[in-house]
Amino acid sequence: MAFIDSTVINIALPVLQRELHAGVDDVQWVVDAYLLVLSALILAGGSLGDRLGRVRVFGAGIALFAAASAWCGFAPNVGQLIAARALQGLGAAMLVPGSLAIIAAAFPEKERGRAIGTWSALTSLSILAGPLLGGVLVQGISWRAVFFINLPIAAVVLWMIWRRLPKMEGRAGESIDWLGSAIVSVGLAGVTFALIEAPVRGSRSPLVLGAGVIGAIALIAFVFVERHAKNPIVPLTLFRSRRFTGANILTLLLYAALAGAMFLLPFEFIQVRRFSPAEAGAAFLPFVGTMSLLSRFTGALADRIGPRIPLIVGPVLAGCGFLLLAFLADRPTYWTAFFPGILTLGIGMAITVAPLTTTVMTSIDDDRHAGAASGINNAVARVAGLLAIAIFGATAIVVFGRELERRLPPALRAPMLSRRTRLAEATPPPGMSPAERADVQRAVAEAFGKAYRIDLLGGAALAIGSAVGATLMGKKE
Fold this sequence. Notes:
Elements: H1 2-5, H2 8-19, H3 24-52, H4 54-74, H5 78-106, H6 109-140, H7 145-148, H8 150-163, H9 178-201, H10 206-228, H11 242-272, H12 277-282, H13 285-305, H14 308-327, H15 334-337, H16 339-362, H17 370-407, H18 410-417, H19 434-471
Helix pairs in contact: 2-3, 2-6, 2-11, 3-4, 3-5, 3-9, 3-17, 4-5, 4-8, 5-17, 6-13, 6-16, 9-10, 9-17, 11-14, 11-16, 11-17, 11-19, 13-16, 14-16, 14-19, 17-19
């Protein structure tokens, strides 16, 4: 549920934008409200599971996630939807680290790589099947159905927990670092608000500047707080492991690239290419195929040859996928414009994901910190998505606005620039002549194409650069 919901909403965003009369900055918050709470509290969620019992916290997270999903489905406006998504993030923060920590505790070390590889394959398949499922539900029922689908899943999993999972008692008596959780929440919220709102309010807006400064100060303060906390949510000693540090650097850069592309591609499919939601979801099938076929085996391969080579080759291939999407963007059909890039990106991610997860969980010698290690890596991945959607979305709005200003005559600029946050959905205002409407529509399409390509080139740079994280691991630790 948690991994599907990180991507299933993406296909619904263009439809959401139209039905709820929202701008791109609003739909950025629909995605980022979830990622913000998940990113900030997943660290505490891992520690909470270590203390109160991983199975107990896992089950509570599922129940909360299901309740928030129902609120999302019934939300009458974008404001309530954003609030409900934040509550979903809280439930996910409790269940995500618990799932991997339960596996790490239940399997002996010799079998752990394959078990984690299976977990990685299924969670990655969930992430990548999200757009396909979302497209079918949005087109066949409603965008609200992408949230209601969680309710029967939650019921089945809660029954399985009650009947099948063993009890895993926590370590009583250890305090939870709520101060660190609060500070990192403020830091991430401030920085995210500044990035999303800067293109709308202006980068010199006192509110934007104030939020950015407060967020940056809070993130710096978080490091100092963690150094002196009795039971920190981020035990900084974990970063003494070169493998752990390198894996998290790779995670940050690669998942930022992936989140940025996943955010913009549905707008290209639905608003520019006029795909139906189901067709837009089906466009990601090369992802699903490569991940389902390759991910489990790459976990076993990393056990045999070590993770370093897959974690260099995989991100470079993923970066090549982004380059193909950028440079083939003007081709006329799906098979020439999108298929080569999506397939290459899927192969790169399939090579990377399972060895990356295995590296994180096996780079920590002390099993007591399994929940914290899982939480840190998951937090890094979510923070990457959180910041990428804010940055890539802001970049798209800025580039789109500048291109409109450059391509339109002065008389048409003001009314269209006021609609720049809608990106390709920006429509000519009433009263224009047919010739003027044609000029505006052409300018909108060309401006969005430029913003789309620039963001994909940024994704390529991040993905290829993420391979540097693998080089920090060394051949063997």
